[in-house]
Amino acid sequence: MRGDMTDDHGRPQPDRPPPESADDVTFPPIPADTEARTHIEAHLEHYLGTSAFVIHEPAIGSDGIDVHIIPPSMLYPFYSLVTVGMSDVAMPTPPGAETFRYAEMLVALPRHWPIDSRAWKDETSYWPIRVLRALARMPYLHDAWVGPGYSVPHGGDPPRPYARNTRLCAAFVTPPMRYEPDFLAVVARPDKVVRFHAFIPLYRDELAYRHDTGPRALRMRLTERNVTELLDIKRKSVMARRWFGRR
Fold first, then answer.
1. Residues 6+ apart with CB under 8 A from 25
2. 244 CB burial (10 A radius; 0-12, 13-18, 19+)
3. What domain range is 68 assigned to?
4. Is position 132 within any domain?
5. Alpha-carbon distance 216 to 221, whole Å?
6. pTM for the predicted model, two decimal places
């Protein structure tokens, strides 16, 4: 990871990649915020629907981070994968972003995406879940800020593709764009507001553009090209020379 990269608030990113293994994760001994988790789960059910199932993390020394798998609906015709437990830890925040101390991560998968443990033995199906969990672990393992503008390359510098079925090779954290505004935060307690962040997988040239021009410029280009947290492993890079006749 490039140590000189910053998030939306100009805060330097930690010069360490997140863990990529789903097993043998040792969290600090931080107990789960059961009250907050209950509010988050109720919030998910109210806005997104009932979880089809939950992936429980085999963490040591902590309750771990769960991933709720919520099936497609009329309003959201795709799978929503949302963490519950990342917000047990308060993140360090830059000045002016104190209300972003608590967060959960999400990603949207197309309705044809394989959603079963047998398919997930193949990295071509599992890698979005691996990335989601890795991002959610950052506050536990590295006391890291994970918020809008944060990015993580896969496999070092230069980054390598997540799997053999795609050239996407980095994660870019952004506010969710496919979800209604009322969903984007939940008041777990009067002193604890939990915000939902999404990640968009990037190509190498998009990550380089983010490094050269900053996260706001990249997010503007992604928005112009209608690239959101709904995963499309075959999408065109927003840095392509021709995009409907425009750069």
1. 19, 57, 58, 59, 60, 64, 137
2. exposed
3. 34-224
4. yes
5. 9
6. 0.86
